[in-house]
Write a structure and sequence with these properties.
- This protein is an alpha+beta fold.
- 27% of the residues lie in helices and 25% in strands.
- It is built from 8 helices and 14 strands.
- The chain has helices at residues 18-25, 51-66, 71-75, 124-141, 161-169, 182-197, 261-270, 317-333, and strands at 3-9, 34-41, 79-83, 92-98, 106-115, 149-157, 222-227, 232-240, 247-254, 287-293, 301-302, 305-306, 339-341, 353-360.
- It has a 4-stranded mixed β-sheet with strand order 1-4-2-3, covered by helices on one side. It has a 4-stranded mixed β-sheet with strand order 5-8-6-7, with helices on one face.
- The longest helix is centred in the middle third of the chain and has 18 residues, at 124-141.
- The chain is globular.
- Homotetramer.
- Pathway: Pyrimidine metabolism; uracil degradation via oxidative pathway; malonate and urea from uracil: step 2/3.
- This is Barbiturase.
- One of its GO terms (molecular function) is barbiturase activity.
């Protein structure tokens, strides 16, 4: 089965799904065909970012009002919300729907892992649970060749003080003594699970000690987010189910925060022909969305120049990096409504990150 991606903006705030509802009531999106949502909200991107919850509720409410699926089915639709639209980034969602087109192209697979306990975060147990879920999501997408996977979006739990307390009641210690830093660690552990599930790395390359330390070991397609909303890994695999289709996806790897060429490489891999030195106008409105992970380079250098993101005590380096990379990608495609997420441990090379593009083939839209 093929899928289509639809970009939907938040016009009034994270609780406003009116633009989504307009697409549903107009028939552009059939609510019972919505399979997954990946979106950016305007919150702080931290543990207490309530905008993710508001957006999730608003979108599910639209599906409840206009679709025929029951409460359990609507609640089971994976919605991965990433908080923080720093700089020029715009709050938006990418809604994936099942399409009538049987010519393959863009395909989506979803899966949930076994429960991830607080003491699993940052350890190989979590890596293995995520890897198994990635395999299930690939099967759900109808993908047998791992090279056809171009993006794996996940949402996993992070540490809370209550979770740490429960682990100690069970006689277990968590990888960190408090929630600080657990977002990065959960994301990084998950990324290694994606890499293992896709065969990018071997099981022998992973142990508890290297997680969060051996940053040269990474996935080139993992985009991992974490929060307090769930207790297991929610996995959404995006790939191509075969040749053809109205939409296709491709990926590349940003080597650093300025690597605009990698965005065009992802677009080319998705199936668009571009000139040697492309610019946004060459895309002719065919790019549906771009997804990227990024972070401040841990060496505090960028192309030989000293950087101060990691030294700033007023603004967290996550927000610096997101704003900077968001501007680079927005300029590349001529659209500030792109998905850029931070906390990219084990997701692409240190200081860089994976990038993917979904494109629309055929005649450009009017």
């Amino acid at each position: 089965m093929s899928f289509e991606a639809h970009k939907v903006v938040f016009e009034q705030g994270p609780a406003d799904a009116s633009e989504f509802e307009k697409l549903v009531t107009s028939g552009a999106i059939e609510p019972d065909r919505v399979a997954a949502v990946i979106g950016k909200t305007e919150g702080n991107g931290g543990v207490n970012d309530f905008t993710r919850i508001l957006a999730d509720r608003a979108f599910r409410d639209v599906l409840r009002r206009h679709g025929s699926r029951d409460e359990v089915a609507v609640a089971a639709i994976p919605m991965v919300w990433s908080g923080g639209t720093d700089g020029v980034l715009c709050p938006h969602a990418c809604v994936f729907t099942r399409a009538d087109d049987k010519r393959a192209g863009l395909t989506v697979g979803i899966a949930m892992s076994d429960e991830i306990l607080p003491e699993d975060i940052g350890r190989t147990t979590m890596v293995e649970k995520v890897a198994a879920a990635v395999g299930s999501a690939m099967a759900d997408a109808g993908i047998s060749d791992r090279s056809d996977v171009h993006w794996v979006q996940t949402k996993t739990p992070l540490l809370t003080m209550e979770g740490i307390r429960q682990a100690r009641v069970r006689g277990r210690e968590t990888a960190l003594p408090d929630p600080h830093g657990s977002m990065d660690l959960s994301n990084g552990t998950t990324a290694l699970g994606v890499a293992l599930g896709l065969g990018e790395i071997q099981r022998s390359a992973i142990d508890d000690y290297m997680i969060g330390r051996a940053l040269d070991v990474f996935s080139s397609v993992a985009s991992c987010s974490s929060g307090v909303e769930l207790d297991r890994a929610q996995v959404v695999v995006l790939g191509n189910g075969g040749p053809g289709g109205r939409q296709r996806i491709g990926h590349s790897v940003m080597r650093d925060a300025l690597d605009q060429d990698s965005v065009y490489s992802a677009v080319r891999e998705a199936g668009l022909d571009l000139p040697d030195r492309p610019r946004a106008a060459d895309l002719e409105g065919r790019v549906v969305n771009v997804f990227a992970k990024c972070e401040a380079d841990p060496t505090a250098r960028l192309r030989g120049r000293r950087q101060v993101m990691l030294d700033d005590s007023d603004v967290h380096h996550h927000r610096h990096a997101k704003a900077a990379v968001g501007a680079v990608i927005a300029a590349a495609v001529g659209d500030p409504a792109v998905f850029v997420s931070v906390a990219a441990m084990h997701q692409g090379p240190a200081g860089g990150g994976p990038v993917a593009a979904i494109v629309r083939l055929g005649k450009p839209p009017a």
